[in-house]
Amino acid sequence: MWMTKAPMPMFDIRKYPYNEERNCIVIGGEAMIFHCHHYLNYLQRSILDADYIDSRPFIIGSAADAAFYQLTDLCRGLSINEAKQMVADVYKTFGYGLINIKGMTPSGGRFETYKSFYSKTWRMKFGSSKRPVDYFTTGFIAAAYAVIYGLPLDQIFAEQLSCMACGDDRNVHVVRAKECNFSVYPPKNPLKFNNTPKLPINWEHEETVTRSFLGAHENMVGNEEGYIPAFGVYITRNLSDFINRLQFEFVRAMQDVGGEYGEQLASELLLEAGHACGFFTYGGVMTSDEWNLMVKPYLHTPEDWIKGLASLINTMGWGYHTIVEVSRERAIFRNYNDFEDLSYMRMYGVAEKPVHWANSGGFTGLMQLIYNTDLINGEVIDTEEGFRNMRRSKAKYKTRMLKSIACGDNYLEAEIST
Questions:
Q1: How far apart, in Å, are the Cα atoms of 292 and each of 203, 279, 316?
Q2: HEC string of 279-327?
Q3: Span 195-248, pLDDT tens digits
């Protein structure tokens, strides 16, 4: 009896090595960054809760735009069936869940999935939603449809009809050639890095810790369900331009309706989302088995914990984090080639104000963890209640974004102080 062999994956993450000089991972021309489900859902909910703006078009459009660029590169030269397999493999590898688009035709199609990162983790974090939440997958499928059948994004209609976050038994997405119902953006500039020499972390164990985790990204791929559980959270390998365009378009929309006040409110909400990332992601990392085995033996002071964390996350594609100075009262952090600034320059050019909310909010969350909890003494603080107790609005630390590559500086710099 002949056995049917499973098709070989079209996508292999091992073909895309980590760039140690620039502290980044580029796949199909797009910078990739890891984020956890806490940050991604908190960011999306912060945007959706501002119901006086219509955010759905730019959330879907941000996903479609970034995925279109990447899938255009990855699917070049492939047959239609091979391209469909590539799309499914990329989606699973990056931790978004599972999709099957084999039934897609030149007219579009209806696609069902039972494994969705956004729907699953939204319910985990917030409970049921009144409306579908997997905007990313809607945009991703729209991009795949455009790439596979040679259509421009501005001639595609895409929407999610049902969602497991709403209590449905599956997610259903549809795409078809019709008047576009999401935002479409102008062509982007080439991805460009800043080659300013880095200020090293002033810590003798930096290289040892960094070397221990380099290459780990090859193992951080979707499991049989298309999810990546790591460090006590679910993570995805995100298209940097997708996450960052969400932030930039949110600020623009808030500014349109509220002027300077709207812009300031959006900035505070984005810093808060970054703070959630710092609290949950960094907290998960610093209580993980990997941390206890490969980092904790080198930690003797609270400052060592901060430097150890920076040494580890410099392998995650977020640029190069370093510490200019740090104490309980005040710290100055830098990042060379941070993902927010590089995305802004690629999509919009020069910025008038710093745009690195996720990084700066993350730095604040890190200071909170180290100096205002008993994390370093073994306390588990990875709960929603713990985060509510440590929210920036109640925190001792304040965040000041001092320098930004998008503003013409050579690096990101943020001050976190009491």
A1: 18, 18, 18
A2: HHHHHHHCCCHHHHHHCHHHCCCHHHHHHHHHHHHCCCCCCEEEEEEEC
A3: 999 999 999 999 999 999 887 778 899 999 999 998 888 999 999 999 999 999
- DSSP string over 188-241: PPPP----PPP---S-TTHHHHHHHHTTGGGT----TTS-EEETTEEEEEEEHH
Give the pLDDT mean for 140-165: 98
Tell me the whole-structure pTM to 2 decimals. Answer: 0.94
Asked if residues 132 and 153 have their Cβ atoms less than 8 Å apart, the reply is no
Distance CA 218, CA 224 (A): 16
- How many other C-beta atoms are found inside a 10 Å radius of the C-beta of residue 21? 10
**SS3 state of residue 122:** helix
CB under 8 Å to 210, separation ≥6 — which residues?
311, 312, 314, 315
End-to-end CA distance of the chain: 72
Contact 205, 298 (CB under 8 A): yes
Q: Which residue reads 């180290």 in tokens?
A: 370
Tokens representing residue 15 in the block = 């073909």
Are residues 60 and 158 in contact, defined by beta-carbon separation less than 8 angstroms? yes
